[in-house]
Amino acid sequence: MFKKYFYRIKKYNYFTAAFYNFVTMNINRRSAIKQFIILSAGVALLPSCKSNKKVSLYNNIPINEEQQTFLAEVAETIIPKTDTPGAKDISAHLFALQMMNDCYNTEDREKFVKGMQQFDDNVQKKYNKSFVQCTPNERQAIVATAEAKKDAKDDAQFFYSTLKHLTVQAYTSSKYYLTNVQVYKLVPGKYISSVAV
Is residue 191 part of a domain? Predict the structure, then answer.
C-alpha cells in the first residue's frame, strides 16, 4: 500500500519521487565502503588545502606569507601612504614578486631571497625585532641606511635596490598614478598647426 501510494504521487511530483527513492534506498556493503573511502579521502586532503607555507602564485621564487607581509611593509616604507595611496594600497609588493618570478633569472631570484633574509637579519641585530615589528620612525631610519649604502655589493643591498626599483615601477604604472597624477592619454593630443614640431 505504501509503495502504491508513492508510485501514484511519483508520476506528478518530482520532489516526492526523490523523497521516495531516499526512503526506500537499499544500502549495500559496496556502496557503504565506497562512500566511506570518498569521505575519508576528503578528510585526509582537507589539511593540505590550508596554505601557510608557500604562496602558490610564485612557482619560481620560494616565498611564504610572512615574507610577503615583510615585502609589503618595506614597499610601504619606500612609498608611504599620505593623502595619496601608498605602495601597499596599490599592491606594489605583489607586482615586485610577480616581476621577480616571471622576468628575472634564477641567479637574481636566489640573490633576492637571500638578500631579503639578510636585510631582515640586519634589522634583527640592530633593533632586536623584525622589520614588520619596527615603528614607522625605525623603518624610515632602516631605509635611509639602505639608501646611504647604494654602492654596497651584498645581497641585502641587491634586495633593497631591486625592491625599490620594482616598487616605483609598480606605483608609476598603477591606475591611480595614471588617472590622477600623470594622466595618460591613449591618443596624442590634438594637432596645433601654429606650433613647430
Answer: no
Query: What cell numbers appear for 131 in the block?
Result: 622589520
Which contacts qualify for 75-84: CB closer than 8 Å, 24 or more apart? 75/163, 75/167, 77/136, 77/139, 77/140, 77/142, 77/143, 78/143, 78/163, 78/164, 78/167, 78/168, 79/167, 79/168, 79/171, 80/136, 84/176, 84/180, 84/181
Range of the domain at 154: 65-181
Q: How confident is the model at residue 153 (pLDDT cuts 50, 70, 90)?
A: confident
* Residue 83 and residue 8 share a domain: no
pTM equals 0.65
Position 195 in a domain: no
- The answer as to whether 136 is a domain residue is yes
Q: How many domains does the chain have?
A: 2
d(CA 7, CA 18): 11
Q: What's the mean per-residue pLDDT of the chain?
A: 80
